[in-house]
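Team,

Forwarding the record for the chain on the shared tracking sheet. I've put the sequence and predicted structure together so nobody has to dig through attachments.
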Amino acid sequence: MKRLLTFIGLFVLILLANRFLPEVIDSYYIHLLTLSCINIILAVSLNLINGTTGQFSLGHAGFMAVGGYTSATLTYYLGPKLVLALDFLPAVLAKNFVFLLALLGGGLSAALLGLLVGIPSLRLRGDYLAIVTLGMGEIVRVLILNVEAIGGARGFSGIPAYTNLFWLISLTALTIAAVTSLTNSSHGRAFLSVREDEIAAEAMGINTTYYKVTAFVIGAFFAGVAGCLFGHYLQLLHPNSFTFIKSFEIIIMIIVGGLGSIFGSVIAAVILTLLPEALRYLGPVKDWRMVIYSLALIVLMLTRPQGLFGTWQPDFRRWWPFKKLKPVS
């Protein structure tokens, strides 16, 4: 009962935030909040693959692109017909229902790609796996460039603006809760054993390939969801948004936060989203903001190579109605 009331209270708070925050906060800060939430989803989902399971994937931008383009295609071509078919519902509910279907479609399509790539390639390790996932991301981008139905090299414009604070906050919280719960479950211990010593894990009877593919599919699903939110926020998707540089940006977030620390990924995603914008206010040296940004990363890696939080996880038990979170080690 207590848990149900907590969920209802959180749901009401998110609805109120979606209704009133855009009226009391400048749109520029809403924009930063939106990008922060999308980057949190990307960082936390990649941390499950690279941090918790110990793989090295460079294809997260590819999964994000597949999810974004799939949901955009669904809402652009089929969305109006579905909204008309749901005319017995209020227009707001009908549009949100269509967006929910698009989110599921985008996430599942990315997860399917993760499965197709993961099964044959996750028997590889280290640099070889990184090269395969990097190649997968580039193949996805080149395919998008050559499909005119989704805009090709011009980009896919006219995507319905369905992303709002309700979806952003809800899906960010869902991603953190899902990955945290999974990491602290018995399956999470199997993921960690794969990261710590794959040969020893196999000797203990753990199906390492199964757990690596599972982490890959779940991470790809949430990356696809982030792509959906991204496309329906900007109302435009372009292949240049999903180059390998985007994958590197996400990897930097989880390394800065600490591989294996979900809390660290959240904090790093927010810091690295806001820092370039904050450096714009440095007056005469604002033109050097990207140099300062890069130097800050170099200094951090030299002084704190394990990231800001290492593998540390805070204990949310006092105010979070789920299992006790323990340090991931």
